[in-house]
Structures are given as C-alpha cells and as structure tokens.
Amino acid sequence: AMPSAAAYEATVTAPVNIAVIKYWGKRDESLILPTNSSLSATLSQDILHSKTTARADPNFTGADTLWLNGTPEPMSASKRLANVVNALRAKRAALEASDSLLPKMSKWIVHVVSENNFPTAAGLASSASGFAALVFALANLYQLPEAKDGEAGAGRSTLSALARLGSGSACRSLFGGFVAWEMGTHADGRDSVAVPVAPASHWTDLEALVLVVHDGRKGVSSTSGMQTTVQTSALAQERFKSVVPQRMFDMKQAILRKDFDQFAETTMMDSNQFHAICLDTFPPIFYLNDVSRAIIQLVTDFNATPVAGYTGKYKVAYTYDAGPNAVLYLPRQFVRPVLALIQHYFPAPTDVPAADYFADPYKVG
Ligand code: 2P0
Description:
One of its GO terms (biological process) is sterol biosynthetic process. By secondary structure, the protein is an alpha+beta fold. It has two domains: 8-199, Ribosomal Protein S5, domain 2 (2-Layer Sandwich); 206-363, GHMP kinase, C-terminal domain (Alpha-Beta Plaits, 2-Layer Sandwich), CATH 3.30.70.890. 37% of the residues lie in helices and 21% in strands. It is built from ten helices and 15 strands. The protein is globular.
C-alpha cells in the first residue's frame, strides 16, 4: 500500500474595501491593469469579511474545486479563478524545484471553501474580499515566503498583484487600513500593486456607514461598464490624465494628516466624477437612483448646517460604487446624528425587520 501522505490546509479572512479614489478603466484586460491609480479604506473585518479555507491533499481526485457560499464550481470554469490558482501553483512549483525536501503540493488537487459573513443582500461587492482571501489562503497553504511577510513587508504587495488577476479592486483587500493601488508603468503588471498608506490604527476616529438603497444585482457589470467607458468617454481620458494623479496625492496627504475636510471633499468629488464618466459613457451607465441622489442632498445640507463647537467644513462624506448604495465616512461624533437624519428622511419600510434596517455602524479597520 502507498504510505498515506499528509494533507495541508490554511484558513484566512480578508476584508471589504471601499474606494475613495475610484478605479474605473483597464489598459490591459487580461492582466487587469488599470488606467488610473486608486485608493480605498478597509472596513472592519469584525463585521465584514470573506473567510476562505484552501486544502491540498494527494488523495483528492477530480478537478480543483471552489465551494462559494456552499455551491461547488470547478475552478477551471472561470478564467480569472484559473489564472489566480495557476499563478500561485507556479510559485509553489518554483519553491519545490529549489528544495527537493518540500512536499510536491503543486501537483495535488486543491479544494477551496469560501464564505462571506455578510449577506449578498448587503449590496457590497464580495469579489474584492473573496479574491484577496483566495490568494492569501493559497499563499499560506503553499507556504510561500510572501505569506510570511506582515503588512509592512513587500511580500504582501507581491500577493496583491495575484489578487488583481482575479478582480482589480481585490488587490486593495490584502491590507487593512488605507490602501493605494498604484497603476504602475510596466506592461507585465509587476508594479501594478497595492501598497499600504496607513494602518487602521492611524485614524481610529473615522467610521463608515453603509446605506443599502437597493440589494439587487447591478444592471451593468463593472468589467463591461468600464470597458465601454474607456472606449467612448472623452471625459474619462481627462480624468485618467489630469485629475486622478493630483487626487491621489491630496488623498494620501489627507489621510496622513487625518485632515477630514480634505478627505471628505476629495472623496465626494471623486465619487461624483466616477458617476459623471458613467453618464459620459455611450450608451450611458446609470448607477445612482433617486434615493442615492436624495442622500447626496441630505449630506450636502447637513454639511452646510453649523454645529456648535465644530469648526470643520465637512461632517460627513458620501461615496457610491457601481450601484445605488451609499457609503458614508464620518468622524465618530457624527454617527448618531447622521443615523437619526437617515431614519427621519428614510424611515424603515414595514416589511424589513428593524435589526436589519439599523445595524451597527461599521468601523474603518
Ligand atoms: C473601485 N469599482 O475602485 C471601483 C469603484 C466600482 C466602482 O473596482 O473588472 O469588480 O473585476 O477588475 O474590481 C469594481 O470593479 O472590476 C470597482 P474588475 P472590479 O472599487
């Protein structure tokens, strides 16, 4: 009988990130290289994360398989999924080639189980945390040196480039806190990686609120939507060239200085411009709806209302991704008043349990 070889397994979690400088446009579709740099804040993993277990076993037969929220799918069914797994397997094979004592895990079938601890009905993209968790789980399973690097090490950025092959925004979920995705200049994508700007502990007063306006699937997928934008929008070309570089600089400075006014203004203007280039796309893409726009008006009015003892220009900032749901960033002192305003102007529908309507605020983590 064959001696039974050990199986290996690794379990990790990865966080959700919400961009404050938006990624929208690719210069290379297969390597997922962006037309502009972007920057995000990570939401606390205590509340929102993808949890992924990867297992390699010499006795597994059949195909590499992913159970995503319980549903099995061969990993070869998705080109992006296959690209990510193949890239990590190649890194493991290179390690094995240089050290004959290592188990030949790269030859074994892998099973991956991935779950989000937030309902898809939260209206938050799960591809970012999902691909980040997949890459980190496989890197740990394969005991890659990059996986041993903490968030301050270069290994994490190297892994972020592999998450990028799954979904662009996923590269920003390999870190916590405030994270830049530098677009890079190389054609092979080696410098199109995520880099930490500041850890979450740097700015503990900043909170995020997720306002679910509509929990259905979006009409136009990000991948095809941004393709049409790059092909048809002249305004987008102006954004890539003349607007985003300065905003990346301003945003990093705002975060490092914990300057909420600069952070808020840049965040809101960049959300507006992202939706403007969607409108400038032909045929146009509409992600905001009337409720989204009413929330923008409410935030604008609240910011214009003086609060005794507060000297800042802004008290809350909105941002919207490829859908109608709002994410608000705000200093902790304004969480209660803003939630009270939201409840007043957008009372809970009678068919939604109060606990679902009014969950805890999300910490930026
Ligand atoms: C972002 N979004 O920066 C922007 C803002 C949506 C609006 O990244 O084609 O799902 O997989 O690279 O990452 C959504 O795009 O697109 C996105 P692919 P992805 O968060």
